[in-house]
Structures are given as C-alpha cells and as structure tokens.
Amino acid sequence: MKVLVIGPGGREHAIVRSLQADPYVTELHCAPGNAGIAQDVPVHAVDAQDPAAVVALARELGSDLVVIGPEAPLAAGVSDALREAGFPVFGPSRAAAQLEASKAFAKDVMAEAGVPTAMARVAVNEAEAADALDAFGAPYVVKDDGLAAGKGVVVTEDRAEALAHANACFAAGGSVVIEEFLDGPEVSLFVISDGRHAVPLAPAQDFKRIFDGDLGPNTGGMGAYTPLPWLPAGFVDEVMERVAYPTIREMAARGTPFVGVLYCGLAVTRRGIRVIEFNARFGDPETQPVLARLKTPLGGLLMAAATGKLDDAEQLHWRPETAVGVVMAAANYPDSPVKGDPISGLEAAAAIEGVSVLHAGTATNDDGETVTAGGRVLAVVGLGADLHSARAKAYAGVAEIGWKGAQHRTDIALKAANGEITVSGGAA
Fold first, then answer.
1. Where in the chain are all domains bearing CATH 3.30.1490.20?
2. What is the pTM of this model?
3. Which tens digits make up the pLDDT trace of 13-52?
4. d(CA 362, CA 372)
C-alpha cells in the first residue's frame, strides 16, 4: 500500500522508519518532512495545515492511507478534508481532536464518561483565575485551554507566577483551566482507536522540563523511555477500562467518533490513576522509543484503525529490549532557539549498534550541510537489554553529535534505572 505521512518532526520520522519496515508498505512519502526524513523517503513541500493542498498531494500520489502526525493539521480540519475526498485517514476529525485542542472540552467529556481526572475550573478573567488558585492551593497548575505545543502549562508554588501565566493567556484572547495538583509519577499511554475498538501500545514516560532534575521551563519533551518496570501489574488494562474505552464511547455517542491515537497523559497518584490530559496524536518524544520496540507491522495497524477494522488486527508483538530516547535541543531552547548551526557526527552516531537518530528540527543549507531548524533538533534512541544498557547506547550516540550550543538532559530514565520511582506509597 502507498502511505503519505503528514508532519515535519521527530514523531513523523519515527513513524516513517516504522512504516519502512512494514513489508506491506510499497511506497512511502512525507510532507513536509525534514532533512532526516528526506534521506529516507521522498518529501514534498506542502503546508501540512492546508487541507486542499494535502488532499491534492494525496490524489497526485494515489495514497491508500494518510497518517497525520501533529496536532495543528488535525485542528485545521485536514483529516476531514481527506475523508471527504475518499481517503482512509489515521487521525481524528477536527471535532474529535477537540479532546486536545480544548482542555475545557476534554474535562467535559471526562465528566460525562466518568473518567478519573483532576478537579478543575475554567477561568476567563483574572478574578476567576484568582478564585480558582485560592480554591485549589499550591502547587498551582494553570493550563492554556488551547494548543500550546506542550508548553502551555505552568506548575508552580508561586501564586504570582501562576496568575501571570493565566493573564498572559487572557491577553492572547484565550481561557485557562486551573486544576488541583496531582502527585505521583506520570505515564503516557498511546491507544490506537478506530472509533469503536481500541488497542494500547506500550506505556512510556517522558521528561518535560529543560534541565536535569526536572528543573527549568516546560518544553515539548526532552526524552522518554519504555517499558516502565515500576508500573503496577494490570496498569494498562485499568487504563483501558476506566479511561480509554469510556472516552471513546462518549465521543462516539456525541457523533464525533475518535479515529487515531488517543494519547492518555496519566498520573499514578496515591488515590489511583488520574488523567492529566488527552492528546489527539502520537506524542513526541515518546513515539520514538515506543515505535523502536514495536515488531508488529505499523502500516497494517494504522490502516485497520482508519477503516474501522481494528478488531480484526493482529495482536501486537514487541521487542524484548528497553528503549531510551534522548532529545538534543538547539541553543536557547525553549525560548528563541538558534537556527542554522551545522550538525556534526550524525553518521557516527547512527553507526553505533542499537542506536537510531531521528530528526525533528533539521534542514539542509545551501552547502548541503544538515543544520538546526527548530527547538528540538534530534532524538537519539538506544535499544538495550535493560534501562542501564539502553541509556548507555543513547548517550553514546548523543556524544558523537554536536553543534554550537547543543543541549540535552543527562538524566533521562536515570531514576527508573536506579529503582528510585515510587508508586502507591511503595518503591518499585
């Protein structure tokens, strides 16, 4: 089958690599892609958020399946336009993607479906925000209601900082969701859905803060690992029963069936599982290590979801290894990342056994050099027998790569490797 992947980032590079390994995928294209994706498959300079342009490209290529990676094209209605044109699409409609595009909408869906989540209030002005902050107390959690590429959330002990973030959202014409703080480690679970049936992938954990020790501002994610040896038995089954299926049923009941990836961002608290947020697509950087372990052909799985036949899909099979992904970011990320710096060592890193280098914010300059072109530039994924081994592989790859001002965290998966993550009051 011929597959077209929409998106420019590391998540899309991971999807492309997995689809390349699928014997049923005979032709593979990406739009707009990046410098790394362009080395693997043909790329097309199409605006991913322009529904008409994406439909025209899919027609030109004769695509059998279109896979939409990022949230912005979903919110722009690209999947709707493709479906109207008769293409099988992996990615929810604009209406269903509201689960990510509006945190207030997601809270309403969870309330109707009985899904466990943090108590929350929606605020549209400073007075409402101040009341909500005082009601929940510190640590304060303030979320921009709309899409913010993973950087619209502030968690702080400083009430003034929390209120300032709310006011910045109001000034931009938005609203905020203020909620109770959830204790406990966070888990990402991707659930593939065809609108009625669902299949979970392997849980992962990502690292959102820019600096070691979970310090500094939030980012889109600085690394991730999978599987999670410290999770309690039956965790995935419980999430499917209490979170994924109730949400999928509620979306179907509303006339907006969810077809694509329901990304469940979860906290494992003393009171049990709580949903932090939903996303409507594969998460970045978790996709990179998760798909590195998936043995089941990805194309068939995504096509089954796109065509409502997920109940007929084969059971998923996973590599026994552990995967750790480390993000390398540009200088001055997450504020105003520096672009255009030549990157060295890419081939040397990729030549290490068990290491793969996935491009996110990269481009090719006039001299043919691969250069930085975004905040998060690369994800280096290591596969190993356990977390210590996988970490060693990933960081060996990182050590080969460089550019002016490159930055990365040195502690991705370190606590888990050392057995230091606590759940439900007990040490894993």
1. 119-179
2. 0.91
3. 999 999 999 999 999 999 999 999 999 999 999 999 999 9
4. 5
